[in-house]
TrEMBL record, chains A, B:
Gene3D superfamilies: 3.40.50.1100. This is Threonine dehydratase. GO terms for biological process: isoleucine biosynthetic process; L-serine catabolic process; L-threonine catabolic process. The keyword Lyase applies. Keywords: Lyase, Pyridoxal phosphate. One of its GO terms (molecular function) is threonine deaminase activity. Its cofactor is pyridoxal 5'-phosphate. The keyword Lyase applies. It comes from Actinocatenispora rupis.
Amino acid sequence: MQETRLDTARIRAARRVIDPMFLDTPLYRCEAWEPELGCRVSVKLETANPVRSFKARGTELVASRLVDGGSRAVVCASAGNLGQALAWSGRGRGLDVTVVASRTATAAKLARIRALGARLVLVDGDHELARDRAADIARRDGIRLLEDSLDIETCEGAATIGLELAAAEPTFDAVLVALGGGALATGVGHVLKELAPGVEVICVQPAGAPAMTRSWRARRVVTTDTADTIADGVAGRRPIPAVLDDLLAVADDAVLVREASIVAGMRMLLDHAGLVVEPSAALGIAAILEDRERFAGRHVVTIVCGSNVDLAAYHRWTGTPRH
Amino acid sequence: MQETRLDTARIRAARRVIDPMFLDTPLYRCEAWEPELGCRVSVKLETANPVRSFKARGTELVASRLVDGGSRAVVCASAGNLGQALAWSGRGRGLDVTVVASRTATAAKLARIRALGARLVLVDGDHELARDRAADIARRDGIRLLEDSLDIETCEGAATIGLELAAAEPTFDAVLVALGGGALATGVGHVLKELAPGVEVICVQPAGAPAMTRSWRARRVVTTDTADTIADGVAGRRPIPAVLDDLLAVADDAVLVREASIVAGMRMLLDHAGLVVEPSAALGIAAILEDRERFAGRHVVTIVCGSNVDLAAYHRWTGTPRH
């Protein structure tokens, strides 16, 4: 395989640093979907933990290394999941955590960041403005800036999912990975390309926020002026060059899906798995729904990456409104 | 501790027979509930597997031992979860599985039993009539009758949850266990009384189906004429004497909760954990809601035991109806 910034030995070592609560998550087949999807689908469930997303795998590493290095503070920009995870990992280690987010971010995510004791800075703009503001704060205060997908810990943490998938029995044919900044896709992709090279690594992004997918296809960074999707966790506009390079080395494909397919995927997770998830977590099923022929008869794993969602919006999207 | 029919060495050995997919399930704290509940609550999640309940821990043992003994067929009565789990475990081992259920059982459960290839026999009556009919079939066909909670495999399988709880860090003060036939409560209770005797074992049953709780309190079998609860998984009327004896040895308390509290518990699992569960899985939270003072400041584990629910009914109960 082509080189990436990741190293499998380091990823294995990372498992010893991460709270075991976030590791060895459920992986199980959901047969009730199969008549509709036409393929075998297994769920890798990353939501059954205190922060309801996979992000703590990375923040456990970040927080641990910061403390080991004598740091007391860290700031990150976040659509909400990274911030919540960093707040959780930081609180347990006495770190001073600041999270910068868009004022329009998912309210449930912002509420949990506050509840976990982090300082929350809101910006009047989208996630890219939050990234700029977080960088300003880090410079001003002389503290560590954690950059999702760029900082290797976030990729290594996500990559521990890849170790678990590579060790899984029975084996599978393809993995569907939500694509936003790229930490999850490059991390999981790196490990699978090294340990299970026969597995197709397919990244899935909303058509309304296609920057990284377009960049992967063009083999150079392509930015977009807007990002318009309910999948807030993957709604970036400015891919990071180093992350794109890694993605080019490990992804077999990157596909775009419609909002209606994302909602249909959320409904299938509700109807047949009892899981209320955020839109990003349904991207994989959306990809199958949009191209059943591609997956027909194969065994596909989809990573259900987060469940932090505003219930009112969830019910509006899925047609199960609250009374 | 007092003797029960269970043996911890056998329960440890059972772990080697059960498909690992059903073991070492997530155990995690849900802080978002704590302002409302007034105590630390951790979820032991038994729904992230192919049959969406803890029952496969037991049916894996049953099916494995049947095959080892040369049997080819088995019949059980079930409200739906045991039947689904037995169908799953039997299918993988080439067993001929018959499940007897009430015609009024949860449709989603019956559909999954059929989809897994089991023969489904429906009776015009409640679960107790299904038990009688299953016994008739076993006699007529000369095949093994699996009796939930009476047959030791069902208790030993459930008891493997107790091993995982006893090994958990941080430790906790009390466990809330849904009480129906008694396999889950006696299994988990046996292990905790032996390995973590400081943990209070509290059984929770709906006030509308109180037979086992009344029996525990009276220290003799008390039957009821009716069972009236949405918690179909625990709606028995005729406790089994041997199971009651075990429950008397291991349970510290048995409490009854109202239907409204069960629904409130289901809402909390939806609102703050993203989990759509069946009513039986919300009994533990219902118990906290009805007696906050008892649990104030303590760390309580609740076993989320199943998520097979008819969504139309779920939405009706919880006030989140489908469009």
